[in-house]
Here is the input.
Amino acid sequence: MTADSAPARVFDGGAERAAADLLVCGSMEMSPDRADDAAALAALLPSGIKVYVNHLPRHGLSQSLTALTALHDAGLAPVPHIAARRVASHAELESFLKQAVSTAGVSRVLLIGGDDRQPRGPYADGMALLGEGSLARYGVKEIGLPGYPEGHPRIPRATLEQALADKIALAADQGIGAFIVTQFSFAPTRVVEYCNELARSLPAVPVYVGMAGPTSAATLLRFAQRCGVSA
Here is the structure.
């Protein structure tokens, strides 16, 4: 490749367009104790981009309200994770949803089961929480559901597939839209295969591919091991 031919081949606009599409259609994730990051994210991202606020074992649902409100006030779209097995009671869920929708403009949630060995409250999994009806009752319009390109370390693939289909059907019955967010993976081929499978089985459901963000190798490996991601 000669010097004068390189710009025409490398900087022909394709990469820039792809990067712009990825940014506009993508999302970010932050911890509930990093509310001060909202302004910095808003300075980097287009208005209305989804920013997920995770629900880790050490955090109660209410601890994410400050971050969710800060994101909303910064012009971004806050999306709380709700880990069903970490919700202690119906009252906790209802109080959180009421405040998240009314004060932080939440209209979407990412509903996951959670990795806790034993449920802390009445919800054994995401299906149980969705079936209880509070999401629709308090104004949630859309739910994200987890997808597992490499499977789950403790749940058979057939069970995962049936549970996903059941949740999408139940959400539709409640007037709630659904989309899928995949677990991150180090195997691009498997991710493509999984997306193709979803395109055949659930063609109307949007799919967003999860990608690991910048972090240390030790942290990345720890989360990969916890989530059943292959090395």
Q: What stands out?
A: The longest helix spans residues 157-173. The beta strands are 27-30, 50-53, 77-83, 108-112, 142-147, 177-182, 207-208. Residues 1-11 have pLDDT under 50 and may be disordered. The two ends are 35 Å apart (CA to CA).
